[in-house]
């Protein structure tokens, strides 16, 4: 059996973490990281939110704090308050929601996938937006889903392909699974309007598709937690949904705790299934998956988030922190756009300010992105997605000039 593992082949680096590794090796002092979506302050440094600092202090000084295991479901005060952030503190769904702490958004998506795969009687094909976050496809393929795409981004108009999106909802077999980005779509930064959401949700309901919301950026799009929860609350509160709704929630970005892996999965039973026995069954099955995969969830990040959510002063501070982050990003979008327009960079650049959240889908081609990296030390994903959070007053001029150079370079070579 000398070759019993000879089928193990080396894989290419992860598109996002591989980019980060290349960035770290680059010796140029003025290199710019517009790769992984992690907030940076105006000095290009990671930012510990003031709300988090206060919560950490409070937790350390709490004589009852300890390092015991959490329960398999996770930290109850975190789960209860995390559900309120999503659904609204006065939602009548709070008494019905089934919540389980997860390893951030990725863990929640994985848990959703395993649960659906084991129990869902519908169609095990999942529909992802085209394009979507690089990790979505492999999370679901790994669990054994068939993965399909629904049109989302119209490259010509740099806007939502609503007709394409609605047509794929209509033509997918009934009871398929649709993954929706709740807000601040990754990678395009393009969200449906309220009216478009209403149409999308209505079609999903007609076909009785199962919805998973990926909510990784609540508060990051508009700076307002309520506004950013629009599609989730619309779907749930109008009870237009005949299947349960699954929400995968991450606090990595909006609390700025990336490494602590704080997140949860919330399942809102449909009106058909809403009874105590169903809720208990789902809860115990989620517990079984967690117990066999990670035993029980990590405590620290969830205690910090719970501390913020339970203390009105810290909660207010957090809301201010969200505005600080989202408005700095909006300012950087405006600055980049106006600099490109001043430079008369070929093409239109209004999409940079029309888009929302952490990312801009710049429209730069993979060759342009490669040239930005090689000639200018500016790193972004080959799809042309730029993390606007990586821009600041010190580097935005350099970035605009470099984009101008590469766009003009490739426009000339086409002539
Ligand atoms: C991103 O898309 O850059 C982030 O969500 C980080 C990640 O885990 O990929």
Percent strand: 5-15%
| CATH class call of the largest domain | Alpha Beta
Major sheet characteristics: 7 strands, mixed
- The third-level CATH topology of the largest domain is Aspartate Aminotransferase, domain 2
Could you tell me the radius of gyration in angstroms?
Answer: 22 Å
Molecules bound to protein? (2S)-2-hydroxybutanedioic acid
**What sequence of helices (H) and strands (E) makes up the elements?**
HEHHEHEHEEEHEHEHHEEHHHHEHEEH
Give the CA-based shape: globular
CATH 4th-level superfamily of the largest domain: Type I PLP-dependent aspartate aminotransferase-like (Major domain)
- Unreliable spans: none
Q: State the share of residues found in helices, binned by percent.
A: 40-55%
Write up this protein.
- By secondary structure, the protein is of the alpha/beta class.
- The protein folds into 2 domains: 114 residues, Aspartate Aminotransferase, domain 1, CATH 3.90.1150.10; 242 residues, Type I PLP-dependent aspartate aminotransferase-like (Major domain) (Aspartate Aminotransferase, domain 2, 3-Layer(aba) Sandwich), CATH 3.40.640.
- Helix content is 46%, strand content 13%.
- The strands form 4 sheets. The protein has a 7-stranded mixed beta sheet with strand order 2-10-9-8-7-3-4, sandwiched between helices. It has a two-stranded parallel sheet with strand order 1-12. Strands 5-6 form a two-stranded antiparallel ribbon.
- Strand 3, helix 5 and strand 4 form a beta-alpha-beta unit.
- Helix 3 packs across helix 11, helix 4 packs parallel to helix 5 and helix 14 crosses helix 15.
- The structure holds (2S)-2-hydroxybutanedioic acid.
- The site of (2S)-2-hydroxybutanedioic acid (LMR) has 6 residues, from loops.
- It holds the Pfam family Aminotran_1_2.
- Homodimer.
- One of its GO terms (biological process) is aspartate biosynthetic process.
- InterPro entries: Aminotransferase_I/II_large, Asp_trans, NHTrfase_class1_PyrdxlP-BS, PyrdxlP-dep_Trfase, PyrdxlP-dep_Trfase_major, PyrdxlP-dep_Trfase_small.
